[in-house]
Amino acid sequence: MAEETIDIRQLTADDYRDLKESMMSAYADMPGSYWREGTIQRLIQLFPDGQIAVTVNGKVVGCALSIIVDYEKFGDDHTYEQITGYYTFSTHNPKGDTLYGIEVFVHPDYRGKRLARRLYDARKALCENLNLEGIVAGGRIPNYEKYADRLNPRQYLEKVQDKEIYDPTLTFQFSNDFIVKKILRNYLPNDTSSKGFATLLQWFNIYYEKDRDTIRYNKSTVRIGLVQWQMRTYGNMDGLLQQVEFFVDAVSDYEADFVVFPEFFNAPLMIEFNQLDPAAAIRGLAKYTEPLREKFSEFAVSYNVNIITGSMPIVIDDLLYNISYLCRRDGTWESFRKIHPTPSEVYSWGMKGGNEVKVFDTDCGKIGILICYDVEFPELGRILAGQGMQILFVPFLTDTQNGYNRVRFCAQARAIENECYVAIAGCVGNLPRVNNMDLQYAQSAVLTPSDFAFPVTGVKADATPNTEMIVVADVDLVLLKELHAFGSVQNLKDIRKDLYEVITRKK
């Protein structure tokens, strides 16, 4: 048996004879439904890249024909004649935003070789290369005539989707990640097999990016630097700031986009208040928070790195909170207050919880911040994921390995269930002269989802336990987009929103 050679290439005018024969065979139930030679030549002249042929041993046995349209001008209620400019293709707009599929077929004698899938893959690649929002097409439902007497089009669609009914066109579209936007009436009036109905199908290009400033832009590969901070005594705040600047400088030398400090990294300054009761001592420490935030903002600009400032105590309206700052390298900053103070923070210090869970926009995508104990509450991560979070930063402070493992294991779970990266940074060492801050245990890490594109362990990089050091790791945000769309499992997509949801209450 002779080997078959299969090729995907651009359609040419010389292919018309094979094209006509294949199309007439493919649409045997619609006599006379084939493209005329002049029409094919016009398409090739207008948009050669969009006309894709599949050949077997050099013979064209199928094709995918497309144009680019400004989809807003047509909306979802168009007909085939309208979208094609009544077959003139005057609607083709090279500056449009959507690749519109006007034809896909394969000769019946060559079906079963997955040729249509190759055509669709080539069309998707074209859409991605042209940076278009996605593909839209009207799809026939040729088996509908067998069920039209007992099922309306919506019921038919649902049964095909549930695999109770097989439809050669619609079943294939579902398997190629298309969704049905709506059902169209009189899309192809002569399509008796579909009873004149069609599905309006859409495929989203997950790599699409709107026009952006060529100087300031969101990066796809983001470099994260974690500071595993050694607790030690400092004579004053200047001594602490020297150590802070040393680490910012060190991470900046690696051209990192973020540097992350741990929770309560500034606790050594509590020595000044050690003669006070714990609640008064932590409020004494809070007087350093605003000056530290100002210095972090200066460092972020001068060292060109976004800084997650760990966390510090702050008094607002006479209430004590645990606060973290995002100091951007453009000079702006925002804050996040720890939602769940630990029992010891409440009993010893009278700490209150914050009331806002939100993502922060940065020049490296959308990020979230949760402080230590917060990451042990999965609802918070889910809320942030719903807001588009790509990287979750978790400054923490734990005194024992048990406490650390609670944070580490929960952070790993947040990365998997929310399909995001999680970076955790903690303190190590001890502070023998500071009440409630005696011992620290940490192993800082950058954690990933668990799928083929990521490390098998789900760990991008981690520190040596209980050793002062920095960890620098690159994370690829494009891999997250691919995971959302094509992952082995898709946690975010498969949430049963019909059964449960996570909501926040206004306070």
Automatic annotation (TrEMBL):
Boundaries of every CN hydrolase domain copy: 222-477
InterPro entries in alphabetical order: Acyl_CoA_acyltransferase, C-N_Hydrolase, C-N_Hydrolase_sf, GNAT_dom, UPF0012_CS
Gene Ontology molecular-function annotations: hydrolase activity
Keywords annotated in UniProt: Hydrolase
Residues covered by the N-acetyltransferase domain: 6-213
The keyword Hydrolase appears for this protein: yes
CDD domains per record: NAT_SF, nitrilase_Rim1_like
Gene3D superfamilies: 3.40.630.30, Carbon-nitrogen hydrolase
Keyword set includes Hydrolase: yes
Family annotation (Pfam families): Acetyltransf_1 (PF00583), CN_hydrolase (PF00795)
Similarity section: Belongs to the carbon-nitrogen hydrolase superfamily. NIT1/NIT2 family.
PANTHER family associated with the record: HYDROLASE YHCX (PTHR23088:SF50), NITRILASE-RELATED (PTHR23088)
UniProt name for this protein: Bifunctional GNAT family N-acetyltransferase/carbon-nitrogen hydrolase family protein
